[in-house]
Specification:
The chain is 40% helix and 11% strand. By secondary structure, the chain is α/β, with parallel strands linked by helices. The protein has 2 domains: 32 residues; 153 residues, Oxidized Rhodanese, domain 1 (3-Layer(aba) Sandwich). Strands 1-6-5-2-4 form a 5-stranded parallel β-sheet, covered by helices on one side. Strands 3-7 form a two-stranded antiparallel sheet. α3 runs antiparallel to α6.
Length: 194
């Protein structure tokens, strides 16, 4: 009987050791995501770096404190897409919930913009900050969203010095606060709908 128990225990122990090392490798790799030199051009969902050079990375307590300074809250989360199998006879009414006071630029964290999008992005930020490139601007989306990282990077590269990145995004905000329904920014939306 002891031979049978040993036979069964060895594979279980080997599996436990393998799972431990796999979890360690996964955790280590996600903690070591390196910042790209420019914009991130890979998939928009996935592990992001812990840093954004030229910007301040903020968690929820820091964002709550920053709200008193009335920063520009730049939500770059994507708009919901109508499912292909959505019934034709039903009305499609997606909503986007965000931090109160946020300005929503759907897809505003894409790596590449056409000329009209690039111009609209910076023209609108110029208006929102009233030309003050040191005014706090907080970029966010959802957790593991390269779009919010890219939006922050784009601002840093353009010379904005008050950039803050909230990588935990709307999901973390909603754990402690209410979110509100927002509409896409009209200036941004008109540039992206052409």
């Amino acid at each position: 009987m002891s031979g049978l128990i040993g036979y069964l225990v060895k594979p279980a122990a080997s599996l436990a050791i393998a799972l431990f090392f796999a979890a360690t490798v996964i955790h280590a790799s996600s903690a070591e995501v390196k910042e790209p030199d420019g914009m991130w051009t890979g998939p928009m969902r996935g592990e992001t770096p812990a840093t954004l050079k030229g910007a301040v990375v903020v968690g929820l307590p820091a964002l709550e404190a920053l709200i008193a300074e009335k920063p520009i809250l730049l939500d770059v989360g994507p708009a919901d897409k109508k499912p292909e199998d959505f019934p034709q006879d039903r009305l499609w009414l997606p909503t986007h919930r965000s931090i109160p006071g946020a300005v929503w630029f759907p897809g505003g964290g894409a790596a590449a913009f056409d000329a009209a999008q690039e111009e609209a992005f910076f023209r609108r930020l110029e208006e929102l900050t009233q030309g003050d490139r040191s005014k706090p601007v907080v970029t966010f989306c959802r957790p593991q969203c390269w779009g919010s990282w890219n939006a922050g990077k784009r601002l840093v590269m353009k010379g904005y010095t008050g950039v803050h990145w909230f990588p935990d995004g709307i999901d973390r905000w909603q754990e402690a606060h209410e979110a509100v329904e927002v509409e896409p920014d009209k200036v941004w939306n008109s540039a992206t709908m052409k």
